[in-house]
Specification:
Layout: E1 7-8, E2 13-15, E3 20-22, E4 30-32, E5 47-51, H1 55-62, E6 67-70, E7 76-78, E8 81-87, E9 95-101, E10 104-108, E11 130-135, H2 147-163, E12 167-171, H3 177-184, E13 192-194, H4 196-205, E14 215-216, H5 223-226, E15 230-233, H6 241-244, E16 249-254, H7 263-267, E17 271-273, H8 281-291, E18 295-301, H9 303-312, E19 316-319, H10 333-340
Parallel strand pairs: 3-4, 4-5, 5-6, 10-11, 11-18, 12-15, 12-16, 13-14, 13-15, 16-17, 18-19
Antiparallel strand pairs: 1-2, 2-3, 7-8, 8-9, 9-10
InterPro entries: MBL, RibonucZ/Hydroxyglut_hydro, Xnuc_lig_assoc
Organism: Formosa agariphila (strain DSM 15362 / KCTC 12365 / LMG 23005 / KMM 3901 / M-2Alg 35-1)
Protein name: Metallo-beta-lactamase
Length: 341
C-alpha cells in the first residue's frame, strides 16, 4: 500500500520523503510552522520555517531559535518535495502549508477562518487532493454574526459603560484575538489600556500593522485613570489580584464559545461577544469544497460530527488525533502566564 504523503505520528504531521514535520508537538530536526499560537509553534526544534511576518512573533515567544521566513506563494524544495505557504486568515502571519510531490498535492490548513478581519491576510483556498482541516467549531449550531455587527455591539457596550462611569474589561487571547479587537475598537470613545502580555505582543506586531494607541497598565496606573476607558486583558487575568484594583468594572469575553448558552455565566463575565478566529460550520464546508479535495482529514474539534457529514457528501473523510487545541487555548491560564512571563 502506498504511504501517504503526510502521516500522523507521535511527533506530529510528518512528510517522510522530505523528513520534515508540520507544526510538530515534540522536538524535531525541521519544522514548518503554520502560525504563532503556542499549540502550533513549540520550543525545541532545530530548525523552523514559517511566514516572514510570523518570524518576530515566534522569536518573541520562543527566544533564540533558528528560523527562516518565506513569503506567501513562494515555493521551496526539500528533498524533491515542493512546499509553499498560503494565507489562512486565522491571525497575522498564519499560513496553510501546501506539500507537493510527484503530482500529488496535500494542504495542511493549520487554523483558519474565511472572514476578513482586517488584520490577517484573508484566507485563500488552495486546490489539492487531500486537505487537513481543523474542526474547532464543526457543529451546525455554530454560525457567526458578521464582524461589523459584533464590533458595533462591542463599541456600544463600551460607550454605555463609560456613561455609567465604569471601566470596561474585555478578555481575549494575547496573540490574534487581542489585536483583532484593538484594530476595531473606537478610540473616540476613550483610551485603550492593555495588560502587559497583550501590550508585549502588540509591540511585536505594531510595526506590521496600523493600530490605535494603547497604554500599558502598570503598578502606577490608578483606578481613576481607568474609569470610562477600556482594558484589553487575557482570560487568565480574570479573577486575579491584577484586576481587583479596577473596581467598578464590567467584564466581557470575545470568543466563539460565547455562542453556547450558559457560557457567559460559566466564565463569570457580564457580557459575551461571539467572535472566533476559526471557521463556523458553513465556512468549514465552503473551505473544503473550494479545495476540490476528495480526501479530508479532520483534526482538533468536533471531528467525528464533521467527518461524518463530509462522508455523507461522498468525500473520503476521516479523523486524526493531534495536540492542537483550537480556541481552547484561550482558556489555558497556565499558557497565558507563560506568555506574560
Amino acid at each position: 500500500m502506498k504511504t501517504p504523503l503526510l502521516v500522523f505520528n507521535d511527533n506530529g504531521i510528518y512528510c517522510e520523503v522530505a523528513n520534515v514535520y508540520l507544526d510538530p508537538w515534540k522536538p524535531v530536526d525541521c519544522a514548518i510552522i503554520s502560525h504563532g499560537h503556542a499549540d502550533h509553534s513549540r520550543y525545541g526544534h532545530k530548525k523552523y520555517i514559517t511566514h516572514h511576518t510570523n518570524v518576530p512573533i515566534i522569536k518573541h515567544r520562543l527566544g533564540d531559535i533558528q528560523v527562516s521566513g518565506v513569503n506567501y506563494n513562494e515555493s521551496f524544495v526539500i528533498n524533491n518535495v515542493k512546499f509553499s505557504l498560503h494565507p489562512a486568515g486565522h491571525i497575522i502571519g498564519s499560513s496553510q502549508i501546501r506539500v507537493e510531490y510527484r503530482g500529488e498535492v496535500w494542504v495542511f490548513s493549520g487554523d483558519y477562518k474565511l472572514e476578513d478581519d482586517g488584520v490577517a491576510v484573508p484566507f485563500e483556498p488552495v486546490k489539492c487532493h487531500a486537505f487537513i482541516t481543523e474542526c474547532t467549531f464543526g457543529l451546525p449550531a455554530f454560525r457567526w454574526t458578521p464582524q461589523a455587527e459584533v464590533f458595533n455591539d462591542i463599541n456600544t457596550w463600551w460607550a454605555t459603560n463609560k456613561e455609567a462611569n465604569q471601566t470596561s474589561i474585555l478578555f481575549g487571547y494575547s496573540l490574534g484575538k487581542a489585536q483583532r479587537l484593538l484594530k476595531h475598537l473606537d478610540p473616540n470613545i476613550g483610551k485603550i489600556y492593555t495588560h502587559g502580555a497583550i501590550e508585549n505582543m502588540t509591540e511585536v506586531i505594531r510595526p506590521m500593522m496600523d493600530f490605535p494607541e494603547t497604554t500599558r497598565i502598570t503598578r502606577e496606573t490608578t483606578k481613576k485613570e481607568l474609569l470610562g476607558n477600556i482594558v484589553l486583558a487575557p482570560p487568565s487575568a480574570h479573577g486575579s489580584t491584577w484586576i481587583r484594583k479596577m473596581v467598578p468594572y464590567v467584564t466581557a469575553s470575545a470568543s466563539g464559545w460565547m455562542a453556547f448558552r450558559g457560557a457567559r455565566r460559566r466564565r463569570a463575565v457580564d457580557r459575551g461577544f461571539v467572535m472566533s478566529d476559526h471557521c463556523d460550520w458553513q465556512e468549514l464546508l465552503t473551505a473544503v469544497e473550494a479545495t476540490g479535495a476528495e480526501k479530508v482529514i479532520c483534526t482538533h474539534g468536533y471531528t467525528d460530527v464533521f467527518s461524518k457529514y463530509l462522508r455523507s457528501l461522498g468525500l473520503d473523510a476521516r479523523t486524526e488525533n493531534t495536540q492542537f487545541e483550537g480556541e481552547l487555548n484561550e482558556l489555558d491560564t497556565k499558557r497565558e502566564k507563560e506568555v506574560e512571563a
